[in-house]
Specification:
Layout (H helix, E strand, L loop, with lengths): L1 H20 L10 E4 L4 H12 L4 E6 L6 H8 L5 E3 L5 H8 L9 H7 L7 E3 L8 H4 L6 E2 L20 E4 L4 E4 L7 H10 L6 H4 L14 H11 L1 H16 L10 H10 L1
Parallel strand pairs: 1-2, 1-4, 2-3, 4-7, 5-6
Antiparallel strand pairs: 6-7
Helix pairs in contact: 2-7, 4-10, 9-10, 10-11
């Protein structure tokens, strides 16, 4: 137990040093732009940034498909700025004429990745632990192999790095707890008296958008059992989407689209 606390204390200090090292006020008029999702990792970043004693803007991008518990929890955070999107998820579905999928994720770009242009954006992105990932360097500049690729700031993926460039969106991304594991996250929050989003107390492992394709079929099924009104909203949006087609679509009703979407 003592060793675990020593390891955590070491990681806390390293994360604080990272935050101080790249403090944008050293070369810019704008402080950090802290992307706040309302999840446990975001809470860690929020607390660490205060411990580092640097200035920052704490911004939550409202997606219109956040769980009600998440919305209410975020409103309890005094310093958070809530940014509303230009278009809701329902309007984006109609505009793009296809449901969001694991491969076609316009919702992330339009709803979650807004803001932070020409800023250093700080996120709570982390690697999950594995031998392969432990061999990665702590500080890297991410370069894209595809000219038009876009980095998604909220994804925990093998390729994520501590410091990244997103040239398309004119921002740099700092992930100071990228090498933390779940146990360390929860121990840190406990130490600082943060219970985090109430969804975790209900047994949820992730806090994300209702119906997100990345949650898997079972996760999405649970979402729609718990939040039936969101299911109805998706079906209505899918029906509006069909009505916008200028040719005969494969689907005839919003319910058919929903059934297809859930089967994928």
């Amino acid at each position: 137990m003592i060793k675990k606390m020593t390891d955590l204390n070491s990681k806390v200090q390293i994360a604080i040093n990272r935050i101080k090292m790249f403090d944008p006020l050293q070369f810019s008029e704008n402080p950090y732009y802290v992307a706040y999702s309302g999840g446990k990792d975001s809470d860690v970043i929020r607390i660490l940034t205060n411990l580092a004693n640097v200035k920052y803007d704490l911004v939550h991008n409202h997606t219109t498909v956040d769980a009600p518990e998440t919305v209410y929890y975020i409103r309890t955070i005094p310093e958070v700025q809530i940014s509303k999107p230009r278009m809701s998820m329902w309007d984006l579905i109609v505009k793009n004429k296809i449901p969001p999928t694991r491969l076609i994720r316009y919702c992330c770009s339009e709803l979650k990745e807004r803001g932070g242009k020409d800023r250093i954006v700080m996120t709570g992105v982390r690697w999950s632990e594995s031998t392969k990932r432990k061999n990665r360097g702590g500080l890297e500049i991410q370069k894209s192999k595809k000219k038009n690729s876009i980095f998604l700031n909220v994804d925990n993926h093998d390729s994520r790095m501590m410091l990244e460039n997103c040239q398309i969106k004119g921002k740099r991304v700092l992930n100071p707890i990228i090498d933390w594991n779940d146990e360390e996250v929860w121990e840190f929050l406990k130490t600082h008296g943060c219970t985090s989003n109430p969804l975790y107390q209900e047994g949820e492992k992730r806090v994300g958008c209702i119906g997100c394709p990345m949650a898997g079929i079972k996760g999405r099924e649970r979402d729609f059992i718990k939040y039936p009104k969101y299911k109805e909203s998706y079906i209505r949006a899918f029906q509006r989407m069909i009505n916008e087609y200028i040719y005969k679509p494969t689907w005839n009703t919003g319910q058919e689209v929903f059934d297809w979407w859930m089967s994928k």
